[in-house]
Amino acid sequence: MPPTRAGRTVKAKGDAMSTDNTAVKAYTLRHGTLWRTDDDTPVTAVSVPTRRGHGYMVNVKAIAFSMSGNATAFFERIATFHNVNSGALVQTGATVNVLTTGTGYTLTLDTSGTDIRVRITGALGSTVAWQIAVDVLEGGPNAANAGFING
After folding, report:
1. What one-character DSSP code corresponds to residue 10?
2. Mapping DSSP to helix (H, G, I), strand (E, B) and coil, where does residue 102 land?
3. For 67, left (φ over 0), alpha (ψ -120 to 50), or beta?
4. Cβ neighbours of residue 69 under 8 Å, at least 6 residues apart?
5. pLDDT digits (tens, 9 = 90+) for 50-103
6. Where are the domains of the chain?
7. 117 in Cβ contact with 111 (< 8 Å)
8. Three-state secondary-structure class, residue 144
9. How many CB atoms lie within 10 A of CB 47?
10. Worst-scoring range by mean pLDDT, 26-35, 67-76, 100-109, 134-143?
11. In terms of Cα–Cα distance, which of 103, 122, 113, 111 is closest to 43?
């Protein structure tokens, strides 16, 4: 299933083809101002549904900028997850903080049920616009036998 943004399913780009059309998927979710925060309450900006028995590598890049123009922050995070055969979603290892510049805003990756979430937090008394790019690589049980087309 492709990622969702604010509760809506978003068309995925760049799906890899496999012999069974389910083993390997690569989602790219790119948007302009994806979300706006008006305070310091964490919100889920992107939710990625997962499938039983599949693994996921998620790379998130984001820019957060104050609408008043006095602050900007940049983020890049990479995390890996596995939806084990029991259906439980677990993060495998720690989230890698590739880049964080600026202060006052946060971006985290976590899980809720069987979804991977991108959570953002603005600043109290400040309206913050967020631009977020999410790349998801999904591999399933048959990934080793996938017959890629043109590749």
Report:
1. -
2. coil
3. alpha
4. none
5. 999 999 999 999 999 999 888 899 999 999 999 998 889 999 999 999 999 988
6. 4-142
7. yes
8. helix
9. 17
10. 26-35
11. 122
Give Cβ neighbours of residue 75 (< 8 Å, ≥ 6 apart): 60, 61, 62, 63, 64, 99, 100, 107
Q: Are 50 and 114 in contact (CB under 8 A)?
A: yes
Contact by Cβ (8 Å): 56, 82: yes
Nearest to 125 by CA among 68, 72, 74: 68
CATH assignment of 4-142? 2.60.40
Closest C-alpha among 4, 17, 1 to residue 143: 17
Structure tokens at 84: 């084990």
- For residue 105, the SS3 value is coil
Backbone φ, ψ for residue 76 (5° rounding): -145, 130
Tokens coding 23: 């083993």
Question: ∠ CA 121-60-67 to the nearest 5 degrees?
Answer: 40
Judged by phi (left if over 0) then psi (alpha if -120 to 50, else beta), residue 150 lies in: left
Q: How many helices (H) and strands (E) does the chain have?
A: 0, 11
**pTM for this model (two decimals):** 0.76
